[in-house]
Amino acid sequence: MTKKITWLEAKAAGLKRYFTGLPCPKGHISERRVAGRGCLECHWIGRRERQAHYKILRRTDAKFKAKEAAAQSRWYTANRDRAIANRSAYYYANRDKVIESRKPYVAANKEMYRAIKRNSNAKRKAAPGTHTKEDIADILKMQNGRCAYCKIRLGDKYHVDHIRALARGGTNDRQNLQLLCRTCNCSKNAKDPIVFAQSRGMLL
User: Is-contact 130 172, C-beta < 8 A?
Assistant: First the structure.
């Protein structure tokens, strides 16, 4: 059982909490905060109730959701370094748990994550331009679902190729992208697009 101590004694000792053994106005026999003298049990019950209330609002009230998102955006802008450090620390402390929890979302958004990975890779190589999963879907439609070189049906097993390779100064925007089958993409690699096309009997 928590040792009994008065508010004055706890304050004099520099403590943050104290315990008198007496019930609060709501009947809880719990520790209390030195600052404000509030009952901790009341605090946690109130917090859980607020969280449940906010959870309902996030699902049902678009105005509340937008207001909360704006507040979070402002906080992130003012505390960007702190937010990144916190997120990184949590990830490495709970890596397996985070990866497992993300699996369903990643599986449902494969193309988005692939685009993010390609953009990140291009950024590391200092290549300009970005693209989205919608850009890839448009390119697939414009190619009628076929490989840009051998014209084989791609389905969902296609490779996103930089027409002019990043290693040759190519950009990462949609104007420099085409969809190829695995065989054509591995064969082309970082070759000059005109030279490769000529090797395939094209652009003679």
Answer: yes
